Amino acid sequence: MKSLTIKQLVKDLKLEVVYQPENQTSKITLTDINRPGLQLGGYYDFFVPARIQIIGNAEWHYLRTLPNEEKERRLAKFFKYPIPVLIVTRDLEVSDIAIKHARENGRTILRTSRATTKFLSKLSDYLNECLAPSTTLHGVLVDIFGIGTLIMGKSGVGKSETALDLIERGHRLVADDAVEIRRVDNNVLRGTAPEIIRHYMELRGIGIIDIKRLYGMGAISNTKEIELIVELEEWDSRKAYDRLGLDEEYMEVLGVKVTRLTIPVRPGRDLAMIIEVAAKNYRQKRMGYNAAKVLNEKLMMKTMQKSDD
């Protein structure tokens, strides 16, 4: 199970540390977030303490209405649960009672100046990104007409050279060689490059080139949803390649099925142009038009008409 440290959370979201135990061991493992209004009101059925807890205006003003003895009792019970962190929004004041019970139970309290709703949205996106299932695949990810296309194949088959041709045609590089992929939703895969090699490309005979400096900001993108996989392979005359496109092939990545095309490579084939057409054709299919099926239906109708005659 992937996890996130409190230290990383504080750094990435620029949070203020109100109180943190010296030997902090708590880690965040869930993307869900909880506003503990019901718990502070005394209802703990179905409470999931492993979630990040957020106190906003409503919870804060509710606590202010409680007598000190009642507030003490409710906060004591709340902080006994193994919550990873409590975050207070809007720069609201954290009471001495809350800090006291956080210290006694080894809980962390953080604070942000952001409004609660906006912070919840940012935090949710951040957790989904950090804790999403992930993998790394060997290939090149290019944004072609808005379609995130992952070009794969054995080493030396021409992936990077084809991607460079695509960049020359105005498309954008996301990642070369190593593509980090996260499943950010049930069926959404997002690809990016490892930070250290982002915007760089390796070309045999030339070496490492910096795409951003050579072609400008318009030639690169930091992240892209992966919708199409193109597998390049050496032409095999004994193999029957798909000529109609009626049968869909898929590759499963992190439990998500992605459309896959196999394109044979041999001298003289303009791979960049072919992959451009593949991306355009995929976009058409996504919008409801499948040329192969339309042609097949026309042929079937023609055949039926001839048989009737």
Could you describe the 3D structure shown?
- Helices cover 35% and strands 30% of the residues.
- The protein has ten helices and 16 strands.
- It has helices spanning 6-13, 37-40, 57-65, 68-80, 96-105, 116-131, 159-168, 211-215, 271-286, 291-308; strands at 4-5, 16-19, 27-28, 33-34, 52-55, 86-88, 109-111, 134-144, 147-153, 172-185, 188-192, 200-203, 207-210, 223-234, 249-253, 256-265.
- Strands 2-7-6-5-4 form a five-stranded mixed beta sheet. A five-stranded mixed β-barrel has the order 8-9-14-11-10. Strands 1-3 form a two-stranded antiparallel sheet.
- Helix 2 links the parallel strand 4 and strand 5.
- Helix 4 runs parallel beside helix 5 (96-105) and helix 7 packs across helix 9.
- The chain starts with a strand and ends with a helix.
- The mean pLDDT is 92.
Helices and strands, with pairings:
Blueprint: E1 4-5, H1 6-13, E2 16-19, E3 27-28, E4 33-34, H2 37-40, E5 52-55, H3 57-65, H4 68-80, E6 86-88, H5 96-105, E7 109-111, H6 116-131, E8 134-144, E9 147-153, H7 159-168, E10 172-185, E11 188-192, E12 200-203, E13 207-210, H8 211-215, E14 223-234, E15 249-253, E16 256-265, H9 271-286, H10 291-308
Distance between the termini: 66 Å
Helix and strand element order:
EHEEEHEHHEHEHEEHEEEEHEEEHH
Biggest sheet descriptor:
5 strands, mixed
How helix-rich are the residues, as a percent range?
Answer: 25-40%
The secondary-structure class comes to: alpha/beta
Regions with little confidence, pLDDT below 50 for 5+ residues: none
Strand content: 25-35%
Per DSSP E runs of 2 or more residues, the count of β-strands stands at: 16
Average the pLDDT over all residues and give the rounded result.
92
> How many distinct helices?
10
State the strand order across the main sheet. 2-7-6-5-4
Taking all Cα atoms into account, the compactness measure Rg is: 27 Å
Tertiary shape: elongated
